[in-house]
Amino acid sequence: MHSLYMDLEYGISGDMFLASLADLGVDYTPLQEIFNDLGLNIIVEIVPESRNGFLGSKATIKWTGQQPLRNLKDLLKLVNTLDISNKVKGRCQEAFTRLARAEAVVHGQSMDEVHFHELGGLDTLVDITGAFWGLDQLGVKQVTASPVPWFRGKVETAHGELSLPAPATAVLLRNKKIRPSDHGYEIITPTGALILDQVVDQFCSGFEGVLLGSGTGFGKERQSLNCLRTFLYDYEAEPGEFTRDHIWVLTTNVDHLTGEEMGAFMEQVMHAGALDVILLPGIMKKSRPGSQIQVMCRDNELNRVQDALFQQTLTLGIRISRAQRVLLPRRESRTKLGRMHVRAKEIIFRDQAYIRPEMSSLLELADREGKSAVQIRLARNPD
Fold first, then answer.
1. Last residue within a domain, chosen from 203, 234, 265
2. 119 and 227 assigned to the same domain
3. For residue range 314-339, what is the model confidence (pLDDT) as tens digits?
């Protein structure tokens, strides 16, 4: 499984992340052409650069012509028209919505009222889209990063001088693992913080696996090395080896929702990024029938899942706890059912491999064949 580790020693920005992926081998020319098919006249310039005798890449986003100041709805509509995969589109739209929510919190406005002085720029559009598109090109399934270095100083914004971290950056860094540092300038931009919020599955001091390559992306600042180093590696557990990670478990009790509302909630919380959700029936105070809701999610999805849980249920409180998971080794595979092949998970337990077909693949194949998923799953292989 391809994974990516980010060394955040000198921070992260959108252009630093793109440059580091380009240094790993991502060619952004096709994405530039996709943007320009919409008449945006964008140039994604990636050039080699050396600092302190250290070679890497630097990314610069340029465009010609006057561009309008776009709001959230404009950006979501624009992303939806790009000729990219639905998976990348969805992740981009979630990221822009997350940034809009952070700006709304900072300014005390609704998301529709927020004016995005930076978000409306094409550089941010390219940075965020390029981040997810680049990860997809590399086949990255998991992203980890070193703890986030805290920093100080001042920055000039459209609202005047502000102390660092910028307010939106501070909101996006909530629930991230932070460590102190001596940096006295903006080493993490709002776009960089958004990338951390959206792509990092776990913050840790290192990684374990087979190193495939490394990339270095330089930023605009010259006060220090100001680079992001990324490491592409493969991690596949040995047969029978357990792996561990940490997740958040959000729990609440409800007795005021209808069955239809509960069903809608489960769909919405999964859309917000939950790993899983379960309803446990029970009897609550005053002998009322009710349910305990348990939702699991990763670090970078905690804020969205929490918001969805409150919004969709209007529960009065949520209990949040950190839990460790023990995982069986697994990898993507394919298996033959009858005369047809479907996507599957191959899991290993005590040196024995087991194949479990993916339900989404079963349903796709069933739809094409005019059969049910049960017929596809139980079909005998021809002799």
1. 234
2. yes
3. 999 999 998 888 888 777 777 777 66
pLDDT in tens, 205-223: 898 888 999 999 999 887 7
Count of H-run helices and E-run strands, the chain: 11, 18
Count CB atoms within 10 A of the CB of residue 54: 12
365 HSE (CA, 13 A, CB side): 22
Place of tokens 């394919």: 334
- Residue 336 sits in which domain range? 330-378
In the block, tokens 């951390």 appear at: 196
As for how many domains the chain has, the answer is 3
pLDDT at residue 383 tops 50? no
Question: Which of 43-46's residues contact partners 24+ apart within 8 Å by CB, and which partners?
Answer: 44/18, 44/126, 44/130, 46/18, 46/19, 46/22
Flag whether 288 is in a domain: yes
Q: Are residues 178 and 189 in the same domain?
A: yes
CA distances from 371 to 189, 357, 368, 382 (A): 51, 16, 8, 17
